[in-house]
Amino acid sequence: MEATDYVIPAQTRIGHVHLKVANLEKSLAFYHGLLGFEIVSRYGDQAVFVSAGGYHHHIGLNTWYSKDAPPAPRHGTGLFHTAILYPTRLDLAVIFSRLRLAKYPITGASDHGVSEAIYLDDPDGNGVELYWDRPRELWSYLEDGSIEMFTKSLDLNGLLGELKPS
Question: What is the pTM of this model?
Fold first, then answer.
């Protein structure tokens, strides 16, 4: 098989992201305290691994090369954002409600046709996308068969409408 013929297997998934952070406790307050990831393991004051649902880790946080360092420049190369996929629109509404109650600033909120997303930055200025995918049968396709995607403003009040008063 030639390199130009290779197509990555459809079952391939991105398993985790490992972030260099300046302050482990501030990062834990965000990823564990606010977003709700579970702490899986900790390596002293240098690294912590967090996950959803008991996986070995979805996010690694470490200060090995970055303790007390400033954030990467916004207009430089590097990670644009880490995307965290929620199972349902209700789950996205719940985390958005948590962000609002904590008065945590968001940087954007978009409807992409195939998904709805909320954007924010972690304490180190790393972009984070919190999103859910619409079911595939609701996606639109262009004449050439490619997926129709766009960026429109997300109706945040409509999203919060998912929350039922108890």
Answer: 0.92
